[in-house]
């Protein structure tokens, strides 16, 4: 089976379930977005979180996808940067516990923290303090980090450092890897559209986007956006929430249904786990429809829990569902 390495912001998620959305307005965080915050805003959020029940989990878009892949038994690794602190230790220990090859660098800044607000409808909003995660630089990366892998999965949240992303992609290409890019967030795409276009036109093989991100990138609705993106890369995936996903490779196009979920608890990691399932299917050599259906199983399960850490029993059920998909 092909191995996949993730490159992303090594963030620890601190999740809080809200009774209403008033704190989002208070903190100036648009619902459903990812906003970068400074230490002052982080402290304000921490003061509020200290009065609430919170849950701790490793996070970051690429980190979530790699965790999902590892939980299915795929060969994985992760490149990121943490601080020399308890959050950094927590992140490293979680990678090792899940048999993920740990390629973490340690910086001088505090580890990155994603304050995650879960609205009553399950929608999540992030106030992200990047800290050490954002201090990963081009000079930190060598070709040896990528050797032995077949795919590099990159989260779009990293695009603020153009030099580092381009260096990582060029090293990975030199090592023979295919490049997978998740567009991350509609506002991230809007703010750096020209660079995203360059990456997808020139380097990226597989693009993951939800309908908002796809519209930010193309200006079009999902099906038309899919056509535009598919002409720029090998495989294009546009996720449309409860309606499933559209996938296109060349002239082949698939519409996969989402699994029915009666109780959406937290949508954190839904897109990341879809990518994990899809890429797992791809590394096993399955067709597009089976890859998408495996992605739907993972995303449908992760939205039923707070955070992205699923209990063993749930993973056992997921694997049974995947076996059913494979045998069809």
Summarize the structure.
The chain is an alpha/beta fold and 328 residues long. The protein has helices at residues 22-27, 39-49, 61-71, 86-97, 162-174, 186-191, 193-202, 211-218, 222-230, 270-283, 288-302, 312-327, and strands spanning 4-7, 11-17, 34-36, 54-59, 76-83, 101-107, 112-118, 124-129, 151-155, 178-182, 206-210, 235-239, 245-249, 252-256.
Topology, pairings included?
Blueprint: E1 4-7, E2 11-17, H1 22-27, E3 34-36, H2 39-49, E4 54-59, H3 61-71, E5 76-83, H4 86-97, E6 101-107, E7 112-118, E8 124-129, E9 151-155, H5 162-174, E10 178-182, H6 186-191, H7 193-202, E11 206-210, H8 211-218, H9 222-230, E12 235-239, E13 245-249, E14 252-256, H10 270-283, H11 288-302, H12 312-327
Parallel strand pairs: 1-5, 1-9, 2-7, 3-8, 5-6, 9-10, 10-11, 11-12
Antiparallel strand pairs: 2-4, 7-8, 12-13, 13-14
